[in-house]
Each structure stands twice: as C-alpha cells, then as structure tokens.
Amino acid sequence: MTVLEVIKKSSEFLAKKGVDSPRLQTELLLAHLLKLPRMKLYLNFERTLLPTELDALRALVMRRAQREPLQHIIGSASFCGLEMLVNKHVLVPRPETELLAELGWQFLSSINSHPPTCLDFGTGSGCIAIAIAAKCPTTRIVAVDISPEAIAVARQNAATHHVVDRVEFRCGDGFTTLNGADKFDLIVSNPPYIASDEIATLETEVREYDPRGALDGGADGLDFYRRLATEAGAFLKPGGKITIEFGDDQTKEISDIFTAERWTVESVHLDYTKRERLLTATCS
Ligand SMILES: C[S@@+](CC[C@H](N)C(=O)[O-])C[C@H]1O[C@@H](n2cnc3c(N)ncnc32)[C@H](O)[C@@H]1O
To answer: Which residue range(s) make up the domain with 46?
Structure first.
C-alpha cells in the first residue's frame, strides 16, 4: 500500500470509530512513525510502505481507535512551540493554556524586578513554567505539583528546553512546599477544575487517560480556587498578580471567591474559542 492509500484507509477506520479529525490524526501518527514532518507526507504519497511499517502503523491506529490520546501514543505535545514529553502521569497540555503562559511571560518581561519571579501551582508536565522560562530568560520560577511522577516528567522537559537552572521543582501539596521567604511577582495556575461527578461524563481521551488528580476540583470544581484565593496572597510581592485558568461557566463563581478574599479582579481573558478562560487578580 502507498502512503496515500494507507492514509485514506486508516482515516476511514478512525472516522467509523468516532475519532475527531481522523485524517489529521492518521497523518500525525504516520509522520511520527516515519520520522517526517507531517507536510513531507504530501511529497511521499506514492511511496510504498514496508510491511513492517504497515504493521507498526496498524498498531498505532488501533490504539487511537481505542481513544488513547494522540499525544500519549507519540509521547509528546506541542506547547507554545516547544515539544513537551507527556505520559499517563500528566495532563496533556491544552492549546488554551498557551494563553496563560503568554500572559505570564508578557507580564514578567514588562516589570522592573530583578529577577522577575513566578510560581506555577500544579505544574503537571511543566509546560507553563518552562514556556515562561524559555520566553522570558531572566525569570526564576518555582513549579509545584503534588504528583512525584508529574514532577519527574516536568524535570525532563526543563532539561530538554535548557531551563533547569531557572525552574525549581518542588513536590508536595501546593503552598505547603513554600516558606515565608518565597515571594513572587506572578502566580500562575491551571488547577484541577472539573466537578468530581462530572468526570464520568467527559470524553474517553480525558476521562480514561488524563490523571484524575489533574482533573478533580472537588464537589463543585472550585476547591482549588478557594485555596488559591485564601493562600496565594501571602506569597505575592507588592504589585504582584495571580493569573488562573478555569472551566466553562465558572467566571462568576471564581470572581466572587476572589473578591470575597479581598482580591481585585483586574481582567478576564477569552480563549481561542471566545470563551472566558483566564482571570487576573491583584491582592490588596
Ligand atoms: C489541570 S493540571 C495542570 C497541569 C499543567 N499546569 C497544565 O496546564 O497542563 C493540574 C495539576 O495540579 C496538580 N495538583 C493537584 N492537586 C495539587 C495540590 N494539592 N498541590 C499541587 N499540585 C496539585 C495535579 O497533579 C496536576 O498536575
């Protein structure tokens, strides 16, 4: 079979299995297998695949048909133009979270602090902390996660992107990993924000493959925002800010939680689909 024939056949199979964007998913799997940029497949449509390549592709397509996320199969996800190692211990970084990283490095690049400092609460793969460190080369970051396996992945990503000297990883329960001397210009967080009993309703790729500890935000999904609103202020420098990501339809509840703890909500930002997704607040 040629590259083009196999793309068509596999796409049809994934479509029947209800996988979104089946052609793109097939092309990405094949490009990964052949170690080619996806666009190069188009120059190789007439190439005949070796039997070993066909077998290997079949195995990858079967995994995707069973709804294993593409990023788990190929072992990485692109985030702010950086390839991040991912596995079952970390949330697959989402495109909307790139906006959080971008707001972070824009703010840290604009302030007069030497060095600018940032806390990433719930770092997972380390994607936000590493992207900020890569784009804002003077920043020093503390990145915290309760999962030792996630911290191991984040450390590898920091090494790959040459920021180990500026990102310090701490494993433990949120603010308990900090001490009174830790003060930051910016706290960023994409915490778990799904209500516990909603997790069963999520698509298989998320429900079965993202770690539960990265999703579960407690009974109403808002536990981590309460915690951030109560505890984060003590770790901000004067003039510091917090920028957080949240889920659909959570803007009002989260604004209320922060306002009740004497924060001033400065701005709410939309994601690429024009949904309210990020909030920046200052502490008085
Ligand atoms: C939604 S994921 C975000 C991961 C990554 N920052 C991203 O945006 O892709 C939330 C992360 O918070 C971590 N987490 C959950 N509870 C925590 C806690 N009590 N203290 C620190 N991290 C926690 C989870 O292990 C998970 O890695």
So the answer is: 3-66
